[in-house]
Amino acid sequence: MNRAHLNKLFTVLLAGVLAGLALGAAALPVALVFGLGFKNLMPYAALPESLKTPQPAQRSNLYASDGRTLITSFYVEDRVDVPVEEVAPVMRQAIVAAEDVRFYQHHGVDVRGVARAFTANRREGTRQGASTLTMQYVRNALAGDPRLTEEQRARATEITVGRKIREMRYALTLERRISKDEILGRYLNIAYFGAGAYGIAAASKRYFSTTPAKLTLAQSALLAGLVRSPDTDDPINGDADSALGRRAYVLDRMVETGQVAEADAARAKGELLNLKPSATPNDCTAVPAGHNDWGFFCDWFTQWWNAQPAFGKTVDERQRTLRRGGWSIVSSLDADVQAKATEQVLRIYPNSNERAAPTAVVQPGTGRVLAMAVNRTYSVAPNAAAGQNYPNTVNQLVAGGGGIEGYQAGSTFKLFAVLAALEAGLPLNTEFDSPSVFVTKYPIDGGPASCGGHWCPENANPAWMDGDRTMWDAFGRSVNTYFAWLTERVGADRVVEMAERLGIVFRSPEDARLARDGAKNWGPFTLGVSSTTPLDLANAYATVAAEGTWCRPTPISSITDPTGRKVAAGNPDCRQVLDTEVARAATDAARCPVGDQTMYRGCDGGTAEQLAPGLRRPLAGKTGSSERNATETVVAFTPQLSVATIAANPDNPRDAVGGGVQVRQIEAVGRLLAWALRDEPVLDFVPPSQTVAFQRTSPRTGN
């Protein structure tokens, strides 16, 4: 029978099928059929985008940096498309036997099926719609296309004559455009199999913890049987007996069509269900139970994604893109480094301590964040005490945001004064006879550091800090009065600007106001009175480690769309923000606090002198203590890694952590760096030129 005759016959028989759509009549009058006209029942000349380039919702997977370790998934429908060639032949045969035994004989609309439904609808008053597998695919594709409006998607499943006609015409057109196997593959990827599993890949995993290619005859028959009534027949949450009945039905149909030998079908019927359910995690609270610490990194990843215009104009659009787009996201999280970071954090403070030690590890030159650790449980479970972040929290204690403004990092901010001074043309050997107390020109409203209304910081240990100092040993010994003087000389606003340039974010409204309107008089900024986070701080120091190349902190190594194409949004975002010589000189000074030595032998004492000898590789960094030791901070970096940890009480800033914790922080940072770099080559910092070390010059903006 040629296609033209088939189309005409289909038109006549269609009337009886439509009668089963609960339209209140046993059959449509013949006059209605001819009133509709042959033209309205012919194949369409064109297909909608939903059928030409289908985009069913697929889950996105977030992996660790090895590209294999799954952190979690994001989805509204648990689906991952697979090529039909990767589906076991027995599964393909089973779905055809269950849903459309004449799939390979008809052209999208089964004339025999239409005739059968016509007879049943007239005689028994039933509602047989005679939908072929192709027609079912059309309905599902139109109903699930995220590019369509809710109203357009609803039209795909409405019980109307128009919808049925439209479905049939699209089916006829589709079969002229693509092969049967491609249609079958699309159907298998879009069908709902119950228990939250969309598509054959998700269903294979959900029910049997296997892949479509490895499905057995019994497994295939069970899955194929679920498609008719996936909610009620689902053997995990629904009726297992009904599921077994449907399995038997599919096996019988496969025997009838010669796809399976009767003996093989009998053996398959005799098998137990043998379910091996496995649920696909969804969102950050579903990270593996043994890796709860990954939740904080995952949470920061979602913050990052929500800020990317490449994935939509609004946060809602970006979230829809994430949960429907089928992305394969390889993150920057190094699972091994993360485990070690968490181990070391717990040696600073255990989970049972209300004080926290949020810690970040950043890769210089890329901005990739390798680890984010804190002694908290990532959970939305309520806390017994009044605190919001102990012991359970989903707040971003490491990266900030979402109400977390950060913590004072003390003298670690002196780095920004060093950089501003070097950029202004001052050399590393800039000398100043540092007194115990230095009265500055910066106005201040009372407090212990006020002398007649002016800011006047003092040295914490005058016997060790006072006297002639250069940038090298002043940074090493953390001499407050030297840096108050240096800030006056170069300008507090230039120190603030330098911090912003290196990525310090002012999340506190008061800090943001001072940075915007009062930076010229914000002398105390140099001593770290502004709130920051371990991530901001680690990345700022990573900029110096990378010889002035600042990179936006990123949780991404690569992002690939469902077609395998890499997305540019996953690439590092880096730019040169410091003259190379300025960065090298700052690194040279930063070797002093941690017990290393510069090429010019400028170091003479440090606040964490035990760090470098224990690591046995070139190292730089800084410690910091806020007023009354309310917080304690340690930052350390090599050319390959930058680590920052801050000890604080996120729920009670008045709870001073005390200076003693800094010893544990120094030890933890040293052990973390030693372990993370154990297989990495020993790289040295490039020393600065003699000019930047010893000569005053014009401003060094260079490259």
UniProtKB/TrEMBL annotation:
Keywords: Carboxypeptidase, Glycosyltransferase, Hydrolase, Multifunctional enzyme, Protease, Transferase
Pfam families named among the record's database cross-references: Transgly (PF00912), Transpeptidase (PF00905)
The organism of origin for this protein: Micromonospora chaiyaphumensis
GO molecular function: penicillin binding; peptidoglycan glycosyltransferase activity; serine-type D-Ala-D-Ala carboxypeptidase activity
Gene Ontology cellular component annotations, sorted alphabetically: outer membrane-bounded periplasmic space
InterPro entries on file: Beta-lactam/transpept-like (IPR012338), Glyco_trans_51 (IPR001264), Glycosyltr_51/Transpeptidase (IPR050396), Lysozyme-like_dom_sf (IPR023346), PBP_transglycosylase (IPR036950), PCN-bd_Tpept (IPR001460)
Gene Ontology BP, a term: peptidoglycan biosynthetic process
Gene3D superfamilies reported in the protein's UniProt record: Biosynthetic peptidoglycan transglycosylase-like, DD-peptidase/beta-lactamase superfamily
Name of the protein in its database record: Membrane carboxypeptidase (Penicillin-binding protein)
Catalytic activity: [GlcNAc-(1->4)-Mur2Ac(oyl-L-Ala-gamma-D-Glu-L-Lys-D-Ala-D-Ala)](n)-di-trans,octa-cis-undecaprenyl diphosphate + beta-D-GlcNAc-(1->4)-Mur2Ac(oyl-L-Ala-gamma-D-Glu-L-Lys-D-Ala-D-Ala)-di-trans,octa-cis-undecaprenyl diphosphate = [GlcNAc-(1->4)-Mur2Ac(oyl-L-Ala-gamma-D-Glu-L-Lys-D-Ala-D-Ala)](n+1)-di-trans,octa-cis-undecaprenyl diphosphate + di-trans,octa-cis-undecaprenyl diphosphate + H(+); Preferential cleavage: (Ac)2-L-Lys-D-Ala-|-D-Ala. Also transpeptidation of peptidyl-alanyl moieties that are N-acyl substituents of D-alanine
Occurrences of domain Penicillin-binding protein transpeptidase (ranges): 360-639
Domain (Glycosyl transferase family): residue spans on this chain: 71-254
Taxonomic classification: Bacteria, Bacillati, Actinomycetota, Actinomycetes, Micromonosporales
Position of the signal peptide: none
